[in-house]
Write a structure and sequence with these properties.
Blueprint lengths: L4 E6 L14 H15 L4 E6 L9 H4 L4 H25 L4 E5 L8 E2 L2 H9 L3 E5 L9 H11 L4 E6 L4 E2 L11 E2 L1 E3 H6 L7 H9 L4 E5 L5 H7 L5 E4 L2
Amino acid sequence: MKYKRILLKLSGEALMGKRQYGIDAMQLMAYAEDIKAAVDTGVQIAIVIGGGNIHRGVQGVSEGIGRVQGDYMGMLATVINSLALQGALQNVGMKCRLTGGLAIEPIVEETSGERVVEYLDAGYVVLISGGTGNPFFTTDSASALRAIEMKADAILKGTRVDGIYSADPEKYPEAIKYQTLTFAEAYEKQLKIMDLTAFTLCKENNMPILVFDMNTPGNLLKVLNDPAIGTIVDNG
């Protein structure tokens, strides 16, 4: 197993499944079962989920809500998604802890790198909600920050496609898949992997990003054993 401790980044939109909004129960359980299969092999997993299936901070500007308030609404959306995944993981027999950039007693305790590591070492799956706890930062940035804090081996970014391509493979069938990329190459090619803040944090702290298809059942465990299934971005 290449990675022993990972930060799994999931998009909020992925939880919609075939729905147009909200959370699809079948998709949620499929993720829970895949995460359990990986944890059962001894891999430590912390999870950051976006909130785009419920609310995006930037929506607030177009809807007449201030950016700061909108961003906090987005953070609360990540708490809702994290609670849902926590319930699904508990339903398949996993021990979970829900921490966050926003402490919300009694459901979310304040996160820290040390606390996350303690829980991982004790056999828990740790969900980290609330982004960084600050407006103007995305859950991509939160993922990079939390992965560095907990000394993860890599960030695994689960998407709908099986890696990084030269163009959107859903629109351009001729797009070429990259097996590996350096941070410099990804930047030069203007590939949208994570936002620039997150990308810079990962580059400066030597945190690899592995992009893979999370929507194929069993793929999380497969990519942990064979990262070539996805695309790795690192310092080379």
